């Protein structure tokens, strides 16, 4: 114990005597540890999702995959599934402890004379057996009764203040608004849950209503389709482990063959897979980043973790490089200690203790930086980066981090010192601290990582600017999008379009199937010949209203677009409309890219031609060709875009505003929707730049993360290079003096030293560029409109890292170059 105390004392004295190098070591390690701990907090937060529920390990959500050859669609429906699934699951898999459906949407809820949009979820009775909620009022057992509702504490306070909400009546809007009784109030769901309202990846609720309420006010005929996935279906495995998730997936495969009608299985491949609820957050984050394409996959959480580990590794290499360089100057002290009887093991122990104190100081500073930085964040992000002081696992992580970093950065320099022989150290006063090439490679590795990150970040910024310009830059007027669809009453679309267009400062309105900028809609496969075996091309599909093309200033290249004077332009949906066509052709408009892919480079050549959709023999007449205009952020590898006229499924609206009183225009839109579609509340309006920000959200987060990592990498590399410059210039003082006595000018010495420090930086850039090019190509391949990959990012990376190197070492080098020969030689 006394020896250990002595080692601590010696370590503290040495740290105090080497203030510059100790401060540099603490600085570089702090930067690396900040990145690593912050990433650990975020990844751990995502991994902790829904683990607060007692049955989390046994609870699975059924994810539906839908592959339709006729539409070219191949997508997972994000842990959602068809409405009939739960009924057959209960029938075919009696081993399950519970099965429940969960349907959530934003619905107007009236309480105390005030109506407000709330996140309302409709659940079946077994839902309360699967998820254990903490009741703070009322009886959760009563929630299984018809026309009952459960409120979260926050929602209850908003609706009824501090008064007791239990027993009160609320009105849930919809096609037929319904009064329900509040039977219980529960504690707010923890933020790290997909059931929490307002969490990062929320499918949460403010109100839980009994399933009969959904049947009365929300269910539509389309909800029962196997091609739709409007609900989440939860399955609870038995507690004794007698039935596993693998067995459940086997039963799901057999359920498809037994219960899905043959006509559905012929038209599409439908599959189900049970996924743990703890994976919901990670799956949602992955989908928001990559969508449904391209075919290769980048694991977002793993990529971020690798980058953070790389930054920490750079910091560790930096510390090792600096510490190893210092060992040559400590040879005399170590040789003296060993001559007096110190063992190599004692030297290693003392060096590791000194390193551990530096690592501990760096860790403490990192935590001190993370805490106030986390407070600058808002909402769920603040929770994601909050330090869990009360969790033993976090302290275990810190202990492992401290031990791991101490060994990683301290063991090699300690072994170098321990190998010093007393005779050599006493005779020479200094020994080699390892090959110079090793130190050069270590410096190069740091700058290679920094160059890689700088180049990638430049690509990210160029891509974002180019993408935004391609999608939004051509619009001079503001546009507003909103949704008017089930479950609330549906207004006549033509009536609503006319009413919207009458508003002040409104230049037009139209509807569409899928919102702009989202790459989640269906696709269609077209062929030129009636033969079902003819080659097919996959196209994105969009249903639009009459005025859609004029509204968005999409030029018509040939033929015409959908017009009110042509009644046959609309897709027939009812039996009467289909019979009236007697097999006649359906109208379609192609964009230039689709027409060219089908074999008509001249748009006029496509007008009047007939194509067919996948296996269908129904002819499709091309009535017009329009210019190719980017509509989505992500690419899906489609050959072009095919437009149809299908009002029955077009529930998204877009309104073009003038440059006048925008507030009056927005007020008119809300009034028109509430007038023609009563009971649904005011629509949620979004400008196109807001829609872009929402669709680009995950990419924006990744851009910030990588940008922050690049800054950390540059700061670490610069700090380490400053330390190496201080050491090297000190070691080369005699050389500088000799050169100056031979006639070398200060400028020449300065250029020589700068070039010596620049060589590993230039080599590092050349080594990093191929990997940066590969990463940039993969990233740009995600987008429908990709920026050109020019030499600019790589040139900027080289310029940034060289400038950093020169600024970092410039002061030390300039001071050394200006020393007079007499001072330089005397210093030696």
Task: Give a structural overview.
The two termini are 41 Å apart. Helix 10 (300-327) packs antiparallel against helix 16 and helix 17 (493-501) packs antiparallel against helix 22. This protein has 28 helices and 22 strands. The protein is α+β, with helices and mostly antiparallel strands and 828 residues long. It has a six-stranded mixed barrel. A six-stranded mixed β-barrel has the order 14-15-20-17-19-18.
Instruction: Determine the fraction of residues in helical runs and give it as a percent range.
Output: 40-55%
**Strand order, sheet with most strands:** 3-4-9-6-8-7
Q: How large is the count of helical segments?
A: 28
Class by alpha and beta content: alpha+beta
What's the count of strands? 22
N- and C-termini, Cα separation: 41 Å
Strand content: 15-25%
Largest sheet: 6 strands, mixed, barrel
Helix and strand layout, with pairings?
Blueprint: H1 2-17, H2 19-47, E1 59-68, E2 73-76, H3 85-92, E3 98-111, E4 114-123, H4 127-130, E5 135-138, E6 148-152, H5 153-160, E7 169-172, E8 178-186, E9 207-210, H6 211-217, E10 232-236, H7 245-259, H8 262-267, E11 269-276, H9 280-290, H10 300-327, H11 331-339, H12 344-375, H13 379-384, H14 392-418, H15 422-428, H16 436-472, E12 479-483, H17 493-501, E13 506-512, E14 523-527, E15 537-543, H18 548-551, E16 556-559, H19 575-581, E17 586-591, H20 592-597, H21 603-606, E18 610-613, E19 619-626, E20 641-644, E21 652-657, H22 662-676, E22 686-687, H23 688-695, H24 697-731, H25 733-741, H26 746-780, H27 792-818, H28 821-827
Parallel strand pairs: 4-9, 6-8, 15-20, 17-19
Antiparallel strand pairs: 1-2, 1-10, 1-11, 3-4, 3-7, 3-10, 5-8, 6-9, 7-8, 12-21, 12-22, 13-21, 14-15, 14-18, 16-19, 17-20, 18-19
């Amino acid at each position: 114990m006394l020896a250990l105390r002595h080692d601590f004392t010696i370590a503290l004295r040495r740290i105090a005597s080497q203030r510059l190098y100790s401060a540099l070591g603490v600085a570089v390690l702090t930067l690396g540890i900040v990145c690593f701990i912050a990433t650990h907090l975020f990844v751990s937060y995502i991994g902790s999702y829904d683990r607060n529920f007692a049955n989390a390990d046994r609870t699975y959500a059924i994810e539906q995959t839908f592959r339709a050859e006729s539409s070219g669609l191949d997508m997972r429906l994000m842990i959602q599934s068809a409405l009939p699934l739960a009924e057959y699951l209960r029938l075919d898999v009696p081993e399950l402890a519970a099965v429940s459906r969960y349907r959530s949407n934003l619905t107007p809820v009236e309480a105390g004379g005030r109506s407000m949009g709330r996140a309302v979820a409709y659940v079946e009775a077994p839902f309360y057996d699967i998820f254990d909620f903490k009741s703070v009022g009322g009886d959760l057992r009563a929630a299984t009764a018809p026309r009952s509702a459960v409120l979260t504490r926050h929602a209850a306070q908003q609706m009824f203040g501090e008064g007791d909400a239990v027993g009160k009546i609320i009105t849930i809007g919809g096609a037929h608004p319904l009064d329900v009784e509040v039977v219980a109030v529960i504690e707010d769901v923890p933020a790290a849950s997909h059931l929490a309202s307002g969490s990062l990846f929320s499918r949460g609720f403010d109100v839980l209503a009994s399933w009969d309420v959904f049947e009365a006010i929300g269910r539509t005929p389309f909800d029962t389709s196997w091609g739709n996935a409007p609900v989440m279906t939860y399955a609870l495995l038995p507690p004794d482990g007698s039935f596993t998730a693998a067995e459940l997936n086997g039963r799901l495969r057999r359920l498809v063959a037994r219960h899905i009608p043959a006509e559905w299985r012929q038209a599409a491949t439908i599959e189900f897979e049970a996924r743990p609820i703890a994976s919901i957050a990670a799956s949602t984050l992955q989908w928001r980043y990559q969508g449904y394409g391209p075919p290769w996959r980048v694991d977002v959480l793993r990529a971020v973790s690798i980058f953070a580990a790389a930054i920490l590794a750079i910091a560790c290499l930096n510390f090792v490089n600096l510490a190893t360089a210092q060992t040559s100057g400590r040879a005399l002290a170590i040789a003296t200690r060993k001559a007096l009887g110190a063992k190599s093991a004692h030297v290693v122990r003392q060096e590791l203790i000194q390193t551990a104190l530096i690592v501990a100081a760096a860790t403490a500073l990192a935590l001190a930086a993370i805490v106030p930085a986390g407070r600058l964040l808002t909402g769920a992000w603040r929770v994601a980066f909050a330090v869990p002081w009360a969790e033993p696992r976090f302290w275990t992580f810190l202990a492992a981090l401290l031990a791991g970093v101490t060994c990683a950065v301290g063991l090699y320099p300690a072994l170098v010192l321990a190998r010093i022989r007393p005779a050599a150290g006493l005779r020479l006063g200094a020994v080699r601290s390892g090959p110079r090439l090793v130190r050069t490679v270590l410096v190069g590795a740091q700058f290679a990582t920094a160059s890689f990150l700088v180049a990638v970040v430049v690509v990210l910024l160029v891509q974002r600017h180019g993408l935004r310009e391609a999608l939004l830059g051509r619009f001079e007027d503001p546009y507003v999008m909103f949704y008017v669809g089930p479950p609330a009453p549906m207004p006549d679309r033509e009536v609503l379009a006319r009413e919207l267009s009458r508003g002040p400062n409104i230049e037009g309105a139209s509807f569409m199937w899928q919102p702009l900028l989202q790459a989640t809609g269906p696709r269609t496969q077209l062929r030129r010949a009636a033969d079902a075996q003819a080659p097919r091309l996959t196209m994105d599909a969009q249903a639009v209203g009459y005025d859609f093309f004029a509204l968005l200033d999409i030029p018509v290249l040939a033929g015409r677009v959908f017009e009110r004077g042509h009644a046959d332009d609309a897709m027939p949906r009812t039996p009467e409309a289909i019979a009236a066509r007697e097999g006649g052709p359906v109208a379609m408009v192609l964009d230039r890219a689709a027409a060219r892919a089908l074999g008509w480079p001249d748009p006029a050549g496509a007008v009047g031609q007939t194509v067919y959709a996948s296996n269908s023999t129904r002819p499709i007449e091309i009535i017009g060709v329009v210019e190719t205009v980017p509509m989505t952020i992500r690419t899906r590898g489609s050959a072009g875009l095919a437009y149809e006229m299908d009002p029955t499924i077009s529930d998204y609206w877009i309104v073009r505003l003038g440059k006048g009183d925008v507030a009056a225009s927005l007020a008119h839109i809300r009034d028109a929707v509430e007038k023609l579609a009563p009971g649904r509340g005011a629509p949620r309006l979004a400008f196109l730049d807001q829609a872009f920000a929402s669709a680009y959200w995950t990419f924006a987060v990744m851009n910030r993360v990588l940008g922050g990592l690049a800054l950390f990498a540059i700061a670490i590399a610069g700090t380490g290079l400053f330390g190496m410059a201080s050491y090297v210039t000190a070691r080369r003082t005699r050389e500088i003096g000799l050169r100056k006595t031979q006639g070398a000018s200060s400028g020449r010495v300065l250029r020589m030293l700068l070039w010596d420090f620049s060589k590993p930086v230039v080599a590092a850039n050349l080594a990093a560029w191929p990997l940066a090019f590969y990463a940039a190509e993969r990233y740009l391949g995600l987008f429908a409109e990709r920026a050109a990959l020019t030499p600019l990012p790589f040139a900027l990376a080289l310029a940034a890292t060289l400038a950093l190197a020169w600024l970092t070492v410039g002061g030390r080098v300039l001071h050394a170059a200006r020393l007079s020969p007499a001072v330089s030689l005397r210093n030696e």
